[in-house]
Amino acid sequence: MRTKSDERGAWNPLTSLSGARAAQRLRFGGGAAGIERMEAALAGEAFSPHRHDTYAIGMTTAGVQTFRYRGALRHCLPGEWHVLHPDELHDGAAGTDGGFGYRIIYLDPALVQDALGGRPLPFVADPVIRGVGTAVAGWLAHIDEPLDDVEAVEVTAAVADLLSRHSSERPAARAALDLDAVRRVRALLLDDVTSRHSVQEFERVAGMDRWAVARQFRAAFGTSPTRFRTMRQLDLARRLMRAGRPLGEVAAAVGFADQSHLTRMFKRAYGLTPAAWAAAVRR
Can you give the residue ranges of the HTH araC/xylS-type domain (predicted)? Predict the structure, then answer.
């Protein structure tokens, strides 16, 4: 997997991070709405336990990647892939002193829903797999290239098919979802991520009671309405941080109580403090 950035000297964790007790370097590539691609080089204890509300499909490119997931320690070797379901707690660390590297796609579960025609979200019980085919691998080979609308659809379809092939659950295992209803709740949350909405608002826009909203939103999108909103706040926070805004100012702008609140939520989502994440991002 070589790209133009590789030719410019992309990181090799087995050399540039060798001997570091803990180091993180992150580089974001071209993406699209609901799709994020990233390359990472890490050493030591890379990420504390955290969870995000997207699917994460990545390939180890160098070294040994270890992570705890659903009560077990996993190892992902070069050329192997890991598939993490939304809202599943996991950490991340180097399996050797030399560190490790990987490339990854983060995909909005709503896009997977669209690609699967509303079927329940696939769940891959064993997160380490040894072959995903060229349809998915190709989208991580050149992460610096932008994605147009057609390519975004192709990425989503390839990942949705991969998830379905490896899923441990059959579609009949869950009741039918009222996707139109929960999409209206999702749209309400996206309309203003800095504001809190009442449960009565959810009931009004969905046309169902609060318990059905909570259950069906998670079944459709892999997380709760509250956590979905928090993650969108953090998306906005990351954009402001990369623009150089001070953390206290960022916290206020995205609707957190203060900088400490932002820091707690950020670390729970990404396994790094905002300061550590900002220092790791390669511009």
Answer: 183-280
Q: 193-249 pLDDT, tens per residue? A: 999 899 999 999 999 998 999 889 998 999 999 999 999 999 999 999 999 999 999
Q: 10 Å Cβ neighbour count for 198?
A: 9
Residue 6's pLDDT is 41
Shared-domain flag, residues 83 and 100: yes
Burial 208-223 (b: 16+ CB within 10 A, else e): beeebbbbbbbbbbbb
DSSP assignment string, 79-142: T-EEEE-TT--EEEEESSTT-EEEEEEEE-HHHHHHHTTTPPPP--SS-EES---HHHHHHHHT
Examine residue 15 and state whether it is found in any structural domain, yes or no.
no
- Pick from 170, 52, 68, 69: which is nearest to 107 by CA? 52
The structure tokens listed for 186 are: 């999702």
- Which contacts (CB < 8 Å, 24+ apart) does range 35-38 have? 35/105, 35/106, 35/107, 35/108, 35/111, 35/147, 35/152, 35/155, 35/156, 36/105, 36/106, 37/103, 37/104, 37/105, 37/106, 37/139, 37/140, 37/143, 38/103, 38/104, 38/106, 38/143
CB 182 within 8 A of CB 215: no
In angstroms, what is the C-alpha Rg of the chain? 19
Whole-angstrom distance, CA of residue 24 vs CA of residue 28: 13
Q: Which pLDDT value is given to residue 5?
A: 39
Name the phi and psi angles at 51, rounded to 5: -150, 145
Domain that holds residue 187: 175-222
Same domain for 161 and 28, yes or no, is yes
Identity of the amino acid at 172:
A
**Token pair listed for 225:** 């309405």
